[in-house]
Amino acid sequence: MITKTTALEVLNVALSTGADFAEIYLEEDDQTSIRMDNGKVESCNDTLTRGAGIRLLKDLRSVYGYTNNISRTGLLKLAEDLSGSFDGERIVTVESISKVRQSNKHRPRIKYSDYPREDLIKMLAESSDACLSYDEKIVRCEILFAYNYKTVEIFNSNGKQFGDVHSRGRYTVTATARDERGIETFHNRPGAQKGMEFFLEEVDMNEEARSAAQSALTLLGAKECPSGKMTVIIGNGFGGVIFHEACGHSLEASSVSKGLSVFSGKKGEKIASDIVSAVDDGTIEGAWGSGNIDDEGNPTARNMLITNGVLTSYLVDSFNGRRMNEPGNGACRRESYRYEPTSRMSNTFILNGKSTPEEIIANTEYGLYAKNMGGGSVNPATGEFNFAVNEGYIVENGKIKYPVKGATLIGSGKEVLLNIDMVGNDLLRAQGMCGAASGSIPADVGEPTIRVQNMTVGGRGGTVK
Amino acid sequence: MISYKKVFDKAQAEGLEALELYVSEERNLSFSLFRGELDSYNISDSRVIEARGIYEGKIGYATSEKADSTTPDYLIGHIKQNARLTNSDDKSIIFRGSEKYRRKNVFSKKLQDTPVEEKIRLAKEFHTAVTSRNDKIREVEISYQESTEAVTLTNSYGLKLNSKANSAVLFAQAVATDDTGETKSGMVFRLITDLNDFDINETAEKLVNDTVSQFGSGPCESGKYRCVFSGNAFASLLGAFLQNLSSEEVQKNSSLLAGKLGEKVASSRLTVFEKPLEKNASFRYFDDEGVATSNKTLIKNGTLQTYLYNLTTAANDGKASTGNGYKSRDGKIGVGLRNVFVKPGTLTEEGLFEKAGEGVYITSISGLHAGMNPQSGNFSLIAQGYMVRDGKRAEPLSLITVAGNLFDVFAQIMAVGNNQELRMNGYFVPSVLVKKISVSGK
Lengths: 465, 442
Description:
The complex is a heterodimer.
Chain A: H1 4-14, E1 21-37, E2 40-58, E3 61-67, H2 72-83, E4 98-99, H3 117-132, E5 138-156, E6 160-179, E7 182-188, E8 191-192, H4 197-202, H5 205-220, E9 223-224, E10 228-234, H6 241-248, H7 253-256, E11 278-281, E12 302-307, E13 310-311, H8 318-324, E14 332-333, E15 342-343, E16 347-350, H9 357-362, E17 366-379, E18 384-396, E19 399-405, E20 408-412, H10 413-418, E21 420-423, E22 428-436, E23 439-447, E24 450-458
Parallel strand pairs in A: 4-6, 9-19, 10-17, 16-23
Antiparallel strand pairs in A: 1-2, 1-5, 2-3, 5-6, 6-7, 6-8, 10-24, 11-12, 11-16, 12-13, 14-15, 17-18, 18-19, 18-20, 20-24, 21-24, 22-23
Helix pairs in contact in A: 1-2, 3-5
Chain B: H1 4-13, E1 18-34, E2 37-55, E3 58-64, H2 71-85, H3 109-113, H4 116-131, E4 137-155, E5 160-177, E6 183-192, H5 200-212, E7 223-229, H6 231-242, H7 247-251, E8 272-274, E9 296-300, E10 303-304, H8 311-317, E11 325-327, E12 333-335, E13 340-342, H9 349-356, E14 359-366, H10 368-371, E15 378-389, E16 392-405, H11 406-411, E17 413-416, E18 421-422, E19 427-429, E20 432-440
Parallel strand pairs in B: 7-14, 13-19
Antiparallel strand pairs in B: 1-2, 1-4, 2-3, 4-5, 5-6, 7-20, 8-9, 8-13, 9-10, 11-12, 14-15, 15-16, 16-20, 17-20, 18-19
């Protein structure tokens, strides 16, 4: 998007007042979204975003700015404005820039832009029909199909140039069921960092739509979930949001390095039960949260966060790593050029254990089976989290008995990890959008079916003693 | 930089029936302090051109941050393509203009002109005020975010509207640890339009109190309780409730308030206004379709007064737009609100505790994106707060959830307080006493 000569000039202006590191991040992102309501296309929008962010570091201070004027003049002005935050002498000069080459593991086979939009819309309409015709109580089907193609270029004062491209697509189907008992909605949203082949070969949108309809119907007939402390079996796939919220965020260098995390200074210590091992892996081919490099140019990595219950690694970006004396480990991400990058998760999940999901249920006398989880949030200072159960069932005497709705799981990350007493062998990843300081980014969560003892469940169906 | 005329010319040449350009220009300044020292500093300057056009009777959308000689082709080409793919029965409308607009100047030149050094100094003084108040405070993170947004809406019918507003928010998070190693955190924010109005001591006092008063907190016994919601907590519930006033949700079978116009939908103690013309940072005299906004009563003594319309949903119902057409993230016009006010009652917050007698006081609820279903009204949310015993605020609560149904909660409002808390998104809501809510804890 800019020449090496311009990059050199901009970096050197940025460094003129004593910054010890400078970086230009350029991005062009072609996005398309199609919205359908009850089978009719309501809107199609194409959006072209393009801009640059410049980051300067000096010891433990960072300065960041962005603009979508990426002309030489625009970038020089931004670099100069930013350099005004420091008032020292130049300590770094960039003499030359060389391009770092790496292979692209996440290349789309069928580019979305090459696939006829009319054909895609036909597929969406068919899935909408599949949802609406599933049952007469299904009164509405909303679909959002969004895809993008993003090109990134990074230049930094170590004389390096990096590049990456991301092609992502995601299908969201929301079914609304209604009868005299009320209204319930349920959604499914599969996505990948692949091309259209993902929706032609790996995911059946009609099936996703029918399954959303079925789950919405189940909720209509579900009883209110009872509340109290109980054994909770958390289903595989999106159930991994528990780990993402309860632990993952607290392992990010942004809070760890400042002593603001419950896991600050705990490396090498036992933080989870022995049967728990977990990983953050940004290298998985075609995965939603993957990249060839992270958003400061470091190669992505498979970082073992927890090994047999022991904290083995944090998620580190170079800047926060300065406080921790650790180098960045490929975990520095941002939503777009509008965000200063920081340590974030990519694809984060608990590894397989030995039990089968059937064994876990059969061994549970009474508890909640949280088959499908909604989102949640966590306070990184205290580790307290909450998340919603989208689809839940009461388990009695080793059998799934009846569906319940309105359940929330709450607890603190420290405790819940230690209370995991069974881990299944059915690991599955699911797609989410993770929001934090550097914006909303695609991230996979995941886990096999797990069982947690003594979890607080919130609900309106009376108290369990 | 391109001339927008070229985009309109291109639209005409390509046979578009109408075109609208919505251009927003944003400048931001933000910084944060860690341990009292500046640790990050951000500035930005950006512009987005959102275009909508009607082609062969249907509406198409295209958005660009790039503004050069290729932009007219990009925008008009995609609008045509996207309009062709659209087959919704909704009427496609680009607005010719309202008869009268009530424009006010809400831009604070003073805020813009105050040197950044003064803003940083204020944040540093605030940091000192917080840390010096209590030795249990271990860390304080402070961030200041100032933004200026200028919006220009022009269309091929000659309508041209613009607005410019700026405001700043100061956020602070404190982490406190006591002798037993227990950690608590508290947060505060203040909307600032004039640095002189920021009360350092009052804000620091509130942050420190809110943080250290949580020591020793834990869950209460599960059960049903009388509940005082703080204005901040109640505003979250109100926001979800008001989504059901959207004519779009009503028309698409997704609102439980469908068919309830003129009927009782909440306790007679509740009156809610929308005041987009209130002079503050959320002020807007036109919505995102260019329709003049107006102040109005949404719920009067518990009775539903109106649904909220944009041009398209109004056409479906044979009504006029209420000036509530606001863009969603992908540019499509949905339904939104600016400046929501709940009419205050007579009791102070302490008066509400007294009236409650025994119960809980909920100061914050979170996890709404997952634990709240605005359509069914069911919610189950993590909460923080205090017990209310003998008519007074008592011990702190944590790790509890409150659960209920919005429609039940709104029907069971026993009293509305006379205090008013401003939330960032332009909600002005007092504390509210509700008859019964499920709390799960121990």
